[in-house]
Design goal:
The protein has about 350 residues and is of the alpha/beta class. The chain has helices at about 1-20, 20-30, 55-60, 80-95, 110-115, 135-150, 165-170, 180-195, 195-200, 230-235, 290-300, 320-330, 330-349; strands spanning about 50, 65, 70-75, 100-105, 125, 155-160, 205-210, 210, 220-225, 235-240, 250, 255-265, 275-280, 305, 310, 315-320. Helix 6 (about 135-150) packs parallel to helix 8 and helix 12 (about 320-330) crosses helix 13 (about 330-349). The longest helix is centred in the first third of the chain and has 18 residues, at about 1-20. It is globular and about 75 Å long.
């Protein structure tokens, strides 16, 4: 015991002698009182974790945390923007900050946002080109940097990373070639802001394309543009594809109304990666939260299925559509099913 107390006294003396020195006081005055602290006093910040769709939260080991950079990749028309907007809507429901959307490709429309349940359009700000000025990549990235530094605890959706255009490419002719401009541009952005995302507790979501990998020795396959600095910046990566072999979602008479999105959690900062989530995407309506809950309830046997019949407690329905109709009409019934699913998820995590 005496030895332990002596060690503690020695550590206290070392700490006091360091922080009482003139050079440290000068640095504290210049950089701030907390620029240097003992390791014993560092505690993990409560950054906040956005709860999304139960199936996705299960694959992400709890949700998607603030203070990081995430990337959503897929081929065209799979659901990248829809998922990013949905994450933004979940954030708005759970936290007081705003969502900033950087409209690089110029494709955002009311049809896309109207289908996102709970999206608060008054707290959703769109940065876009105008007739007065067509924005290039540095314009978008400079605005993104300024917004992160001046408005902490917010979500930023960059749509898309691969469509950012360099100044030389924008000002040149169609015949000019500017190789590596995107990578150099993003490299500088990442170097300037690698710690800004965490310090300001921002969530930066980069939507990115999937392209054929034509690099020598790559042996085919696909990759996302952006360069090594951008790849290093990513904490959580979600790779989307249409579920195979039963990806189509159809009505009882065979009309296709959507598809199932297979989300592979390539990396996550909350736990082990390589888990999958299957999310239903209905055209014009986004990803229905209730349908995801129902699908997970069926998978966990919260809702029992026998033949064409579905049952929950004393409730029975013939056919899944009647089950869906029932939870749309009875909010209390859905809350009971949701509570059972979330309880199982909490036990799993």
């Amino acid at each position: 015991m005496a030895k332990k107390n002596k060690n503690e006294e020695t550590q206290a003396v070392a700490k006091d002698s360091y922080f009482d020195s003139a050079i440290v006081k000068k640095m504290q005055k210049e950089y701030g009182a907390d620029f240097c602290v003992p390791l014993s006093e560092i505690k993990d910040e409560e950054r906040g974790v956005i709860k999304t769709f139960p199936s996705l939260d299960l694959a992400l080991n709890g949700g998607i945390s603030m203070g990081q950079t995430a990337q959503i990749t897929a081929k065209p028309k799979v659901g990248k923007t829809t998922l990013a907007l949905s994450i933004g809507a979940f954030f708005q429901k759970q936290f007081p900050g705003n969502v900033f959307y950087y409209k690089v490709e110029g494709r955002l429309s009311s049809n896309m946002t109207d289908g996102i349940d709970g999206l608060d359009k008054n707290r959703f700000f769109v940065i876009q080109s105008t007739k007065d000025r067509i924005l290039c990549g540095p314009d978008f990235l400079t605005t993104l940097e300024n917004n992160m530094r001046n408005f902490p605890d917010c979500v930023h959706i960059l749509d898309s990373v691969g469509s950012l255009t360099g100044t030389l490419e924008m000002s040149g002719t169609m015949e000019d070639k500017q190789m590596g401009e995107l990578g150099a541009m993003l490299s500088k952005f990442c170097h300037r802001n690698s710690s800004v995302v965490a310090v300001t507790n921002s969530l930066l979501i980069g939507i990115n394309q999937v392209r054929a990998n034509i690099n020598p020795g790559a042996r085919g396959g696909t990759k996302s543009p952006g360069g090594f600095a951008w790849e290093h910046q990513i904490d959580t990566e979600l790779k989307l594809s249409v579920a195979y072999p039963n990806g189509k979602i159809t009505t009882s008479d065979g009309n296709e109304i959507g598809h199932t999105v297979d989300v592979l959690v390539q990396t996550t900062n909350l736990g082990p990666p390589k888990k999958h989530a299957l999310l239903p995407l209905i055209y014009g309506k986004g990803i229905p939260y209730k349908l995801d809950v129902i699908n997970l309830a069926e998978e966990f046997s919260v809702i029992e299925k026998g033949g064409a019949w579905y049952s929950f407690g004393e409730n029975k329905w013939q056919g899944k559509q009647k089950l869906i109709d029932a939870i749309e009409e009875d909010s209390e019934l859905f809350k009971q099913i949701e509570a059972s699913v979330l309880e199982l998820l909490s036990e799993t995590s």
